User: What shape does this take?
Amino acid sequence: MKYADMHCDTVTKLYRKQEDLSENNCHVDIRKMQQGQCLLQNFAIFTKTDVQDSSFTHQAIDYYYEQLEKNRHTIRPVFCYEDILENEKNGYISAVLTLEDGGVVDNDLDNLNRYYERGVRMIALTWNFPNGIGYPNVDGKTRSLYRIDTEHGLTDFGIEYVKRMEELGIVVDVSHLSDKGFYDVLEHTTRPFVASHSNARSICKVARNLTDDMIRKLSERGGVTGLNFCSSFIEDHNEKMTLIQDMVRHINHIVEVGGIGCIGLGSDFDGIGNDLEIRDASGMQLLYEALKEHYSEEDLEKIFYRNVLRVYKEVWK
Assistant: This one.
C-alpha cells in the first residue's frame, strides 16, 4: 500500500549533520521510503525559534533542494496537486516542503509570499513557543505535555496570516497550536486544514492531541489529522516504545468520532526520541497489515494517502 506522510523532521536533521537523503541513519532516506512504498513525504523545516532565526530556515531550504537535485532520479519536489500525479506516473517519490513554526516570517506577510515562492505548501503555525501568530499548548520551557491553553489563540497578525495562507494556497497546520488557536483557525478560515502530526486526546491526554470535538470539527471542514508515531502522544507517560496495536487504537477512535475521511499519517519521523515497532520508513507496511482486519481496501487507501491528497487538491492553487 503506497502512503503519504504529512510530517517528518528529516531534512532539518540532515542539514544539521550534513548527511545525505539517499542513505543515512535517520528514520527516512530514499532507500527506506522505497521499501515502505512511499508515494509522498512532507519534509518540515523545523526552526527552534528560541535559539534560531529565519536565516536557519532559508539555509535548510537550500539544503532540501540540493538533496532533491542530488537524488532527482528517485524523488522530485511538488508545488501543485498535478505534480504528485505526474511524479507517480514517472516513478518518482513526491516531496512536499513544509515549515514547523510559522513565526519565521518575522511578522511580515510579504515573507509568507516569499516562502510560498520557495515551494512551501504547508505551515505549522507554532511549535512549543508563542510567536507573532499565536500560542502553543505545550510550553517549550517547562516541557509540560499536559498544559492546555484555552485562553490564548491567534493574534491579530495570526488571523491575517491564516487568511493569506488560504489566498496563496498553503495548507494551515494546527499541530502544536493551543486549543483556543484551533478554534480561531476554524473561525477565520474556510478551506480544509490539518493537524499534520496529532492523535486522539481521549486515548492519550497530552495537550498535543485533539479532543473529540476538534476531530469532529476538523472532519466537518474536510480536514485531516496525521497519526503521530511518538510514544508520548500514543500512550500516557510512555517514553519507551510505540507499539502498532496502540497506533491502531488511535486510528479506530478517530474514525469512530470523525469518520474515515479525517485520518491520515503524520509519522514525525526523525523528531521522535523513543523506540518504534515501525522502526523507520521502510516498515510502513506493518501498519497496513495490522489495519487490514479492521478496514476495507478502499478505506485503507483513504487512511494511507487519499485523504491527504484530497486536502492538497482542494487547498493548493
